[in-house]
Amino acid sequence: MKKISLKEKTVEDMTKMLAEKREELRGLxxxxxxxxxxxxxxxxKLRAEIARVMTEIGARNSAA
Length: 64
What we know:
Helices cover 72% and strands 0% of the residues. The radius of gyration is 13 Å and the shape is elongated. By secondary structure, it is mainly alpha-helical. The chain has helices at 11-34, 42-63. Helix 1 (11-34) packs antiparallel against helix 2.
């Protein structure tokens, strides 16, 4: 996964991205139950991206 730059994104874009990442993580969890996954570290990477987005949203809300 490519690291994304959050500095130039708006809060609305980040909340949309957050919802997409959470849905992708949910899909990975259920696909992992059915058998072997190709990238076993993908859920960890997605959780880290979700945390980055949430941190940036929180920082912007506290600054405003």
